[in-house]
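Lab manual, section 2.4: Encoding a predicted structure.

Procedure: take the sequence of the chain (457 residues), apply the prediction step described in section 2.3, and record the output as structure tokens. A sample record is shown.
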Amino acid sequence: MAANKDQGAKAWLAVAVVATAMWALAGCEVWQSTDEGGVKVTPPPKVEPNVAPPESPAADQSAVNFFEEGKIHEVRLYMSDEDFTSIIQDTRGDELRPATFSINGVVMANVGIRPSGESSRVPGNQKMSMRVEFAGFDKGKRMGGFDEIKLSGSWDDPFIVRDRLAYWLYRQVMPAPREVPAQLWINGQPRGIFEIEEVWGKEALASRFADPNGPLYRLRGLTNTDPYAYQGTSTAAYVPLPWDPKGMTDPATEDVLIPNALRVVNEEPEHLGDVMDIDMLLTYFAVSAIASNTDGFTGPFEVDDHFQYYDPQTGKFVILPWDPDNTFGSINDQPDADIYLNYERCVLTRMVRDGMLHDAYLTKLEDVMNRVPAEAVKKEADAIFNEISSAAANDTTKMYPTDSFIWSLSYIKDWTDKRYASIRDQIAAQRAPAPPTGAPTDPTGTPTGAPATGGTP
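Recorded output:
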């Protein structure tokens, strides 16, 4: 009887699938009323013709607010199928492909599109991140005041928006990019949830610095090398790798900026504050430790994924966060990880672990955790989840099932509580007075308080 019921159910399901397909082919909307893991699944968006709309007036393009919060933006790209396939398969590198771009109904023609990302830049990745370069073919072209943005696919994150949560944490205490959700369409086909990510450049710097015209570099890690090691007076030892210039260099000063700064870092560390913003450096390290950002200084392979901006107003380099998707335990990083994890690899982090920045780092950790308590991080995680949950459930191109997205929220919140507690414990242990030489300890290494062996009672 059970077998007959099962066969009957399968037959009814087959009829329903065929009827649904016929209904859709007739141009009718297909409405579902289901829940996936407690998240309401709304009707999938209708496929629309691959016809680029006419370009919007320049005033409308200028008025675009890419980073308006509290909504899921609608982004549409129109380009040749051949060009889009070459992006998904990454067959033509960083070559710009021409496209028409639309956000919330405001259209700009002849923009440049290319693949973006590093570890996610895998041929066949259906969530391939992309750069949208508005000035790619027409120099000086801007949309919403920006010459480029990034569409981030977050392909390997079950929560989809770990980098958005991490950016939020950084922004509470230092300059950091903005990121908001978007529903992406390519040639009329829905491609699921993406994130519009602010890219470091003159436009982003202008809202954070009085003078946004200084040299800007992205630090790109090379395995088993320290990008902050002093390699002599030649800029060629640093540029273009690991100090990758981002088109804002000053020819009059570039030849001396990096070598001079790194000579001080390595040979005159007591003058570090003359060449680098120490407060921003410690703030970056503190937030990175709290979020366990293994893409920056604490990853298993190299020092990577951050920017340095030379601020002409102060004459100092200022560290800036970038691409913090490997955060909040994303690759099974434990919440009790050492606050000095992999700090032996870089001269700057060795100053934090063993040198003159040690005490200031512990104080900065406490300061950040007091200013942004664990409850605030969890509240923001809830808000992000609630904002995109329906769109995430409907995203048929995401790498992980919806159940993983839902589970990730509770995982991140639990991880955050444990991480804050662990850091406070580690700070207390660091500040505990060292036992006198020869003092006995128990098997765990904890001093017992008894007289030293062989001593006089």
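Check your result against the sample. Confidence is low (pLDDT under 50) at residues 1-36, 442-446, 450-457.
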